[in-house]
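Readers outside the structure-tokenisation community will struggle with the description of the input data as it stands. Showing the layout once, in full, would remove most of the difficulty. For illustration, here is how one protein appears when written out as sequence plus structure tokens:
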Amino acid sequence: MSDISQQLIDQVNSASAAKTPVSIQGGGTKLSLGRATDLTETVISTKEHTGIVDYKPVELIMTARAGTSLAEIDAELNANGQMLACDPRRFGGNATLGGSLATNQSGHARPWFGSLRDHVLGTRLINGQGQHLRFGGQVMKNVAGYDVSRLQAGAMGAFGVMTEISFKVLPKPEETLSLCLETSPQEALALMNKLAGTSKPITAASWVDGYVYLRLEGASKAVRATAKQWRSKYGLTTFAEKKASVFWQALREHEHDFFAGTEDEKMLWKFSVNAAANHISPDAAWAFNWCGSQRWLVGDFSLEELAGHAKSMGGDVQHYSGGDRHQELSLPHNVVVQQLMQNLKKSFDPENIFNPGRLYSWL
């Protein structure tokens, strides 16, 4: 447990005075995400800024420094029968809290429990003028006005150096049970959306390699009754829990065979679309998560040629990882949104030193 706030402030002030662009890093696990900017000269690292500052199990709230590993947070929560409901990607156990929020990582239960962004109550942030600011708080009623804390979600460090984050946690489920069924992608989409629309304890719905996978979590009685009903009605098969646990972790961590090579030479595309949209796609490798609202594609495509597919499915597409990441990774924003983001950037980071170009070339 270590508080290096003053050291971080000094580094920011030095970079700002010299107008030197800096790369903000925590555990360094997400360097394959975002645009490639070649910012290697100066790194501001929160890796040593660690520790759980406050934890109230009864109130389901925790505050931790940005460099705290998710592994440490998981261990503390597990000891109290609680969990990170957003279940962010752990990146081999080295992911930090700050980096997870900066890239807005969320696991399989996102449609039911919300994203990491949705669980954030407050943050502390060092802006481009070296001011150590506090936003939000440790209860929901503090989150009012312009929600700067949640603005950090997915911002890739564009607005400052996060030092502390307060967030909600949830009790662990009493029982977990997984089911699977061999099916086509279109049939999988129909089944996942049908079952997700019921009042059943479902917390994950994915399709990969020709099989749909469903995870039930909650009270034992409800989980077992639902599994029995679905096995009988839809022909689903119980997925041995040890095997299922390995599967869900591999899928979340991109360690499943589907994702092989996608942090290097192979291009991985992420579609955020209408879950019920028909599967309209180029002939390539696909995987679905979140009942089909998140769809992964592996292949050598351009952003422009995939834009039409994304639009036809009611959403957008992003070049997530792999291949050449020097180009824009997302579809263009409208002029109003772009101007708003640039104004925010100028307000928080007047010298444009924090991860310039990492999120967008123009930010």
About this structure: The mean pLDDT is 93. The first strand starts at residue 23 and ends at 25. Residues 220-234 form the longest helix (15 residues).
